[in-house]
Design brief:
5-stranded mixed sheet, alpha/beta
Length: about 400
Amino acid sequence: MKTQSKSTQAIHAGFLRDQYGSVTAPIYRASTFEVESIDDLTKRAEKIMSGMSGSGDGYFLYTRLGNPTNSTLENRIASLESATDYVVTASGLGAISTAMWTFLKAGDHLLADTALYGDTHGLMLDILTKFGVTVDFIDFNNFDLLRNSLKPNTAMVYFESPCNPTLKITNIAHKHNPEIKVVVDNTFATPYLQNPLKLGANIVVHSLTKYIGGHSDALGGAICTADKKDAIKIRLEGIEKCTGAVMSPDNAFLFLRGITTLPVRMMAHCANAAKIAEYLSTSKYVKVVHYPGLKSHPGYEIAKKQMSLFGGMISFELNFNFEETKKFVNSLKLIKLAVSLGGVESLLEHPASMTHAHFTPEELKAADITPSQVRISVGIEDVNDIIADLEQAFSSTSNK
């Protein structure tokens, strides 16, 4: 059969038919799996060590090392990401930290972009440095600076594209030293819109909590690799011995349910976001709109090459001061004020006082986060209702 489309893969890839003919993947809640003999245990352990725990051939011993429900999810996401292998984790940060603990050691150098999810920045700056890893944050869109910032001991390069919360776009397709792991957080784009491994990245991380799940009801993460050996190392060192960040089979089932509708949801998210970005770009209350689908966005041309559509996330800066921005946020009625993103409902957050509140003024400036900036995860409600809510909040704020 010819290569299937992503819409088909999202429903069928990795599916393992059970003895009863269930059309959905069963939930295997077992923490451990019975073996027939010591020889059988040895055989299973060898298969797991060789990376076959997710093959569907029954090579399972303990859910921290692999589980049939989790493996179905791993195989499906690997198909969508065009990956050689994939490992699911208990959360998005669990995926990020597991990847770092697997491939970084004392004395290594990590180079990261200045614009990052707040807790990723905290993990790097506050935690990794305690264990002897040096970290530098630079603007990855300054390629000369990026090239000159690499050191003989640089072991990993890490960035997001589009990034959180500014929607900055970084060119993924740069040639790099094969000894350096290039890690890309693909949460905002999802594997439906962008495949960093095809562009040269070594590892892709996701917060499945967001668009993959799509219903704001499950926590999970995933690590995708271009090299199967990297996935084996992640599973047997990063998860088994370092973080133990194992996804529960119940959450894997929820993500399998969510991923089946990922293509149709992403089409709706993207369509709504494009209309809202255009609306915001003409509003007298808005100073600037950060959306890669707008031709005014500095990353527009790169986004066109890397992404099939421009996503459902928008960041915009208001013509309000800090207190007025908070009033605007508090005046929303349909759009919910909450962290996270990617659910069917529209969510809005104020980075300077929420996800990036722990940033110093210098770090906020380096990340291009301003006091009047808000980020909206555009849901799949009727777009006119979302715009009407923004409009009434603008009016409420300006009538002071």
